[in-house]
């Protein structure tokens, strides 16, 4: 297949952006940041399901996950369920491949001159830092991949269920609605596998539910705020394709 047509180039761009953001999410996700501190506001101390002092401490992966779900809905809108499923499976396989390569890199013997470095005026063992940043546990990796696949499947199914009811109208409803449901699933699946089933942590169900609800609250708010961006991307694509071609693709995607 050559990328001479507008449709093929568009799928290449969207698919590449989709895969890149998913892999980025996995690797930057090891950093936990405070939403309140980033916004410069007082930290919330929430008591939920008996779990005290909860606040919005989020994985940095939330920076790119909203973009992934926007890409999911856009690809779903113009290319249909089969293309999203294919890209989701491909992405999950590439995430697994990336972790295998990183695992191999961690086992390479480091050069002596590289290990002891000074970063921002403080001594740092670079090999330990590399392992600490990239060496995510197997349970977390499995939880992330499973949550990603389950969330994507839920997203595409709900998207088309809503579209059957609303037709081509209410893009915000099918896109944001499907994202909210898939984000809900994603929020709990990854925590359940990585911290409830994992014998190293074995969190209580109250801890899983409480942290999952806090995480989902953040994702819910972000998903709503991202709705205008969905319309901007949709408008840019329609302008690139032309109105007639865009409408034909949307109708064909609905039949797939």
From TrEMBL:
GO terms for cellular component: plasma membrane. Pfam families: Vut_1. It is found in: Cell membrane. One of its GO terms (molecular function) is transmembrane transporter activity. Its main location: membrane. Keywords: Cell membrane, Membrane, Transmembrane, Transmembrane helix, Transport. It is a multi-pass membrane protein. The chain crosses the membrane at residues 54-75, 87-109, 129-150, 171-197, 217-241. Belongs to the vitamin uptake transporter (VUT/ECF) (TC 2.A.88) family. Q precursor transporter subfamily. Involved in the import of queuosine (Q) precursors, required for Q precursor salvage. NCBIfam families: queuosine precursor transporter. This is Probable queuosine precursor transporter. It comes from Pedobacter frigoris. The lineage of its organism: Bacteria, Pseudomonadati, Bacteroidota, Sphingobacteriia, Sphingobacteriales.
């Amino acid at each position: 297949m050559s990328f001479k047509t507008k449709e093929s180039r568009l799928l290449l761009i969207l698919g590449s952006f989709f895969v890149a953001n998913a892999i980025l999410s996995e690797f930057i996700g090891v950093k936990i940041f405070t939403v309140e501190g980033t916004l410069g506001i007082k930290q919330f101390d929430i008591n939920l399901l008996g779990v005290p002092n909860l606040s919005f401490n989020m994985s940095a992966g939330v920076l790119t996950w909203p973009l992934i779900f926007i890409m999911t809905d856009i690809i779903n809108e113009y290319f249909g369920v089969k293309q999203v499923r294919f890209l989701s499976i491909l992405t999950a396989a590439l995430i697994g491949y990336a972790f295998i390569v990183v695992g191999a890199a961690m086992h390479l013997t480091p050069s002596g001159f590289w290990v002891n470095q000074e970063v921002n005026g403080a001594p740092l063992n670079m090999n330990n830092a590399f392992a600490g940043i990239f060496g995510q546990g197997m349970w977390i990796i499995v939880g992330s991949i499973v949550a990603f696949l389950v969330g994507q499947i839920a997203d595409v199914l709900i998207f088309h269920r809503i579209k059957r009811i609303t037709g081509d109208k209410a893009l915000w409803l099918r896109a944001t609605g499907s994202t909210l449901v898939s984000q809900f699933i994603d929020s709990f699946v990854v925590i359940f596998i990585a911290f409830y089933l994992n014998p190293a942590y074995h969190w209580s169900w109250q801890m899983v539910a409480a942290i999952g609800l806090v995480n989902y609250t953040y994702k819910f708010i972000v998903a709503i705020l991202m709705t205008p961006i969905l319309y901007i991307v949709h408008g840019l694509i329609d302008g690139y394709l032309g109105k007639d071609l865009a409408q034909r693709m949307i109708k064909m995607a609905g039949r797939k």
